[in-house]
């Protein structure tokens, strides 16, 4: 199975060099452009689906519905095909990340990152020239392959290339780049929304980060772990010397070698993960964290905020500006997580974030219930502004909790032998749930109206309780001590372990 520096005992690695060298810095930044592309995709689709020129070209019936004065507010954008435009990317991403988990073991991380950028580039080009819906969806599928390849490989690559001591920080920095991508996309949408064929530039803009990644990927090193795992020990040593800036890298080399040997004893990591009792707690917790991450309702805001603002009666411009504002808050709040997550702990943020999101969802639901009637815009000017402020509070709650931690915790709770496979399960859960939200939100909004926000509020209560009762605090615990120090002592999960 694939082995990574994630797979090396944290306790043992503390004696390894912890310096951030220029090589590691550059390689990580280049790879993290994968996060930028992911973010760009998340941020671009909402704005594009609310652009009139785009709707006229591809979804004229939705355009007509949107402008019918007597059309039900909550159903203006309800269209399975329109939603497929957003969600098809994630459907492709599920399969691509599964393929990537195998391919990057066989061929290394670097070619897979390179392929991710090529998929992105082709997807962006196809979308730019799209003449019909088929080309548009085809482009989204190619982008989805890029995301699947990138999301499975980039975090792994960064973890493998980074010195163990600063791995956590670099991991959350990946999420930060996602938020920057989302922000950039909403800004691009704002600029292009008034242009003729503006949507083409928005969608084609994905080519920019893709090109940066493609060019950059020629300059990154293959990770030592991947080289050593594939029997290329000498090459692995050479890269280790380069990225650590040291001649003596024997200690780290030996650790990677040892991790590889242990991991290679497990012939079927999937079987090991699903059948061994001790693996059940991290599997359930890691995968559920991603399930809950999506059911905070975050992508309702990320994908459909412009549509929501328009539903409340804001003009096209105002709704796109509102989206830039919420995405700016998203990026800023993520920085706070990078700085404080190792001090205040994971559970604190998860519970605080869930509470903050629950309160804001309830309030938004109540406001829509009272002010957004079935037909006609909201009469009050204050209500859309209050909803915007509430959405910002909601997004910040996500950005310092379930956003980054949904990715970080699954990377630190698995036993060595099943860590990368377990991580794949988290990525896959993310893609499946993002697909479901992307595909069904607008229809659900039409059917359940403001009740949808109450549904997400309830989900936030459930996930807060889950964090309190089922999530052991993982802050500061060496990865390999997780079972001894946490799972075996947990009131519920301890029954999955043989007690000493
Ligand atoms: C989530 C995405 C979400 C983004 C928002 C990520 O952690 O996986 O689904 O759109 O955060 O910043």
Please, could you describe this protein's structure?
The protein has 500 residues and is an all-alpha fold. The protein contains 23 helices and no strands. The protein is globular. The two termini are 29 Å apart. Residues 1-14 have low confidence and may be disordered. The structure holds beta-D-glucopyranose. Beta-D-glucopyranose binds at residues 42, 175, 178-179, 182, 293, 298-299, 302, 330, 403, 406, 430, 434. One of its GO terms (cellular component) is membrane. InterPro entries: MFS_dom, MFS_STP/MST-like_plant, MFS_sugar_transport-like, MFS_trans_sf, STP/PLT_plant, Sugar/inositol_transpt, Sugar_transporter_CS. The chain crosses the membrane at residues 20-40, 81-100, 112-130, 136-158, 170-192, 198-220, 283-307, 319-341, 348-369, 381-402, 423-445, 451-472.
Topology diagram in text:
Blueprint: H1 10-13, H2 22-49, H3 52-58, H4 60-66, H5 80-107, H6 109-128, H7 133-161, H8 167-192, H9 198-204, H10 207-217, H11 224-229, H12 233-244, H13 250-265, H14 269-275, H15 280-295, H16 298-311, H17 316-344, H18 346-371, H19 382-399, H20 402-408, H21 419-448, H22 451-470, H23 482-485
Helix pairs in contact: 2-7, 2-8, 2-10, 2-16, 3-4, 5-6, 5-7, 5-21, 6-7, 6-9, 6-10, 7-21, 8-9, 8-17, 8-20, 15-20, 15-21, 15-22, 16-17, 16-21, 17-19, 18-19, 18-22
GO molecular function: symporter activity
Protein name: Major facilitator superfamily (MFS) profile domain-containing protein
Subcellular location: Membrane
């Amino acid at each position: 199975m694939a082995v990574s520096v994630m797979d090396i005992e944290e306790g043992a690695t503390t004696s390894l060099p912890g310096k951030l060298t220029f090589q590691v810095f550059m390689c990580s930044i280049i790879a993290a452009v994968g996060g930028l592309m992911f973010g760009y995709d998340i941020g671009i689709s909402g704005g594009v689906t609310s652009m009139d020129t785009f709707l006229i070209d591809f979804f004229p019936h939705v355009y007509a519905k949107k402008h019918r004065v007597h059309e039900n507010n909550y159903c203006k954008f309800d269209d399975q095909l329109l939603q497929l435009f957003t969600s098809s990317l994630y459907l492709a991403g599920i399969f691509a990340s599964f393929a990537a988990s195998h391919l990057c073991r066989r061929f290394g991380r670097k070619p897979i990152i390179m392929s991710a950028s090529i998929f992105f580039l082709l997807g962006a080009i196809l979308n730019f020239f799209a003449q019909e819906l088929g080309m548009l969806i085809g482009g989204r599928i190619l982008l989805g392959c890029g995301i699947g390849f990138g999301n499975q490989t980039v975090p792994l690559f960064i973890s493998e290339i980074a010195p163990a001591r600063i791995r956590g920080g670099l991991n959350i920095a990946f999420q930060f780049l996602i938020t920057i991508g989302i922000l950039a996309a909403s800004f691009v949408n704002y600029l292009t929304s008034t242009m003729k064929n503006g949507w083409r530039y928005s969608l084609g803009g994905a080519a920019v980060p893709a090109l940066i990644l493609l060019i950059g990927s020629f300059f990154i090193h293959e990770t030592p772990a991947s080289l050593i795992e594939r029997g290329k020990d000498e090459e692995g040593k050479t890269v280790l010397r380069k990225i650590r800036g040291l001649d003596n890298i024997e200690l780290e080399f030996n650790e990677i070698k040892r991790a590889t040997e242990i991991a290679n004893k497990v012939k079927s990591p999937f079987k090991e993960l699903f059948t061994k009792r001790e693996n059940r707690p991290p599997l359930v917790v890691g995968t559920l964290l991603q399930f809950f991450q999506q059911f905070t309702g975050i992508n309702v805001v990320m994908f459909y905020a412009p549509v929501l603002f328009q539903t409340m009666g804001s003009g096209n411009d105002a709704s796109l500006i509102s989206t830039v504002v919420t995405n700016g808050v998203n990026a800023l709040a993520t920085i706070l997580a990078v700085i404080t997550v190792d001090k205040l702990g994971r559970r604190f943020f998860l519970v605080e974030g869930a509470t903050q999101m629950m309160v804001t969802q309830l309030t938004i639901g109540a406001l829509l219930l009272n002010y957004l009637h079935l037909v006609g815009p909201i009469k009050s000017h204050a209500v859309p502004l209050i909803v915007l402020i509430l959405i910002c509070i909601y997004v910040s709650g996500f950005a310092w909790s379930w956003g980054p931690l949904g990715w970080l915790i699954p990377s630190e709770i698995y036993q060595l032998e099943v860590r990368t496979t377990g991580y794949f399960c988290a990525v896959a859960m993310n893609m499946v749930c993002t697909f479901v939200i992307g595909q069904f939100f607008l229809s659900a909004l039409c059917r359940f109206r403001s009740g949808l926000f109450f549904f997400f509020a309830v989900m936030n209560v459930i996930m807060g309780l889950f964090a309190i009762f089922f999530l052991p605090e993982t802050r500061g615990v060496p990865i390999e001590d997780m079972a001894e120090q946490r799972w075996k002592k947990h009131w519920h999960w301890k029954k999955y372990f043989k007690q000493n």
